């Protein structure tokens, strides 16, 4: 697996989404590694971003780097919890544990520099695509 991955979440329609969204992971060259839909009413952009980072942490090499454009997700993982989204704390703790176990570096990159976000902007998924993701 790659040494560097970029992760990004997306939603169908608005935040929170009435139908869901998903996540995308790309390599250091912007090549798609994985993309998956999450068909869940009420999915938020933060939940999709967190799920993307978790999947990237699973896929990246030990000692690798995962980039995200969500400062909030970086903060959640650093502290190991969210005060406002306690429903996500189990996933946050799992992500933190995996990142620590694999010595992965989680880094913030602006939206304009996050290759997964750029991929999503160029290849915007919609609800009709969800079954093929």
UniProtKB/TrEMBL annotation:
InterPro entries hit by this protein: RNaseH-like_sf, RNaseH_domain, RNaseH_sf
Give the matching SUPFAM superfamilies.
Answer: Ribonuclease H-like
Entry's Gene Ontology molecular function annotations? nucleic acid binding; RNA-DNA hybrid ribonuclease activity
Residues forming the RNase H type-1 domain are 8-114
This chain belongs to the protein called RNase H type-1 domain-containing protein
In which organism is this protein found? Stieleria bergensis
